[in-house]
UniProtKB/TrEMBL annotation:
Keywords, alphabetical: Heme, Iron, Metal-binding, Monooxygenase, Oxidoreductase
Family: Belongs to the cytochrome P450 family.
The species this protein was found in: Bugula neritina
Keyword Zinc-finger set for record: no
Pfam hit, one: p450
Protein name: Uncharacterized protein
Cofactor needs: heme
Length: 351
């Protein structure tokens, strides 16, 4: 958690230095992609890739941009007429190009780290620092399988956590009273110049967690989850034979007013005395059952730390009159880069 907290603190510095003269970060998506890539790799590889450095280039940034490209193409391939099944359409070829780059770059990052860990003799049970050394010590997977697993987890994490945190910040801009309540909690629990957010502090950040849950409800980045039926079922008079591909629309389930009164409003309070699980299938933002999101706890920890660090230093405002246009690029993101104003709380208080 310390390493992830360090990433959150460095992200705050990147936000501060990315502001224009009005205090606006013009492309918040880019900053948050860097944050999620850097954060997840503290857990996967126990390393810092340097993506929070503006000048960072090479494999880490190429992995991020290729993952974004893969997700964008995937949306079109999934929902347009599937001509790519007959011909290698231009969209298919672009998709292949992004996939190849994402695979090559991320595998190089993992291989390099594996080499370092081997040289340091860090692959023993006492020194397991991260998922990769854990998997190596367990000896159940080949090096290639481990590398591919790491790559898949990077792909699963970059767009999801970043867009979720972005929508949370946007909702806080639109709901200043919630933002103030959140800030009050953060100030009370972690104070002003807190070096380290401890697990005990994390447990007490109840409203912070509620804000993330409520934002995931209104903007579930993964809009649907799907399964192939392994047996025939009847649903509301419809017969669905085994082998049918069914999709649950997560966004519309989250708008069910019998479960979520006043469903269009941002009301973090509704989560204070319930657990995700209490909502049953009305809340599928992390999926369900054996195939539910494997990165959930990790993503939650990243987002709580990120949100606490950002709101502790800045008051956030949405600077435009036109609202952002949510679009699906496999995950729910914005049609244009999100811009957001970050004002230093210390200066606002002094004024
Ligand atoms: C806010 C962040 C995230 C959200 C909302 C999210 C949501 C989801 C959802 C809805 C599924 C489908 C589950 C199902 O069908 O039952 C899923 C699957 C998955 N997620 Fe996430 N996810 C997030 C972050 C992450 C992160 C950080 C990682 C990796 C570290 C990750 C890795 C995966 C993987 C590997 C799967 C496939 C699991 C399987 O098929 O067994 N996700 N996620």
């Amino acid at each position: 958690m310390d390493a992830m907290d360090d990433v959150a603190k460095d992200t705050v510095k990147l936000i501060a230095s990315s502001r224009d003269s009005e205090g606006i970060v013009q492309d918040l998506n880019d900053v948050l992609f860097r944050w999620s890539m850097e954060s997840v790799n503290t857990f996967l590889l126990d390393t810092r890739l340097g993506t929070l450095d503006r000048d960072c280039d090479g494999d880490a940034m190429d992995t991020v941009t290729s993952i974004v490209g893969v997700f964008r193409c995937m949306q079109k391939l999934m929902f347009d007429i599937p001509l790519y099944k007959k011909f290698r359409t231009p969209m298919w070829r672009t998709f292949e190009k992004y996939c190849e780059k994402a695979v090559q770059c991320s595998l190089r990052i993992v291989d390099e780290r594996l080499k370092e860990l081997n040289e340091q003799g860090a692959i023993d049970t006492d020194k397991r620092q991260c998922l990769v050394s854990y998997l190596l010590a367990a000896q159940g997977l080949s090096n290639f399988e481990i590398s591919v697993t790491m790559m898949e987890l990077m792909v699963g994490s970059v767009e999801t956590a970043s867009n979720s945190l972005m929508w949370t910040l946007y909702l806080l801009c639109k709901n200043p009273m919630c933002q103030q309540k959140l800030f009050n909690e953060i100030k009370e629990v972690i104070g002003n110049d807190c070096d380290e957010i401890t697990p005990d502090m994390m447990n007490r950040l109840k409203y912070t967690k509620a804000c993330i849950k409520e934002s995931l409800r209104l903007y579930p980045v993964t809009f649907a989850t799907s399964r192939l039926l392994n047996e025939d079922i009847d649903v509301l008079g419809y017969h669905l034979p085994a082998g049918t591909h069914v999709q649950a629309n997560i966004k519309s389930l989250c708008q069910d007013e019998t479960v979520f009164p006043d469903p269009k409003s941002f009301v973090p309070e509704r989560w204070l005395n319930v657990r995700n699980e209490d909502m049953g299938v009305a809340n599928l933002v992390w999926g369900h059952g054996a195939r539910m999101c494997i990165g959930r706890r990790l993503a939650e920890q990243e987002m709580y730390l990120g949100l606490a660090r950002i709101i502790s230093r800045f008051q956030v405002f949405y600077p435009n009159t036109a609202e952002p246009d949510p679009v699906l690029h496999t995950v729910m993101t914005t049609a244009k880069p999100m811009s957001m104003k970050f004002m230093e709380r210390s200066q606002l208080e002094a004024a």
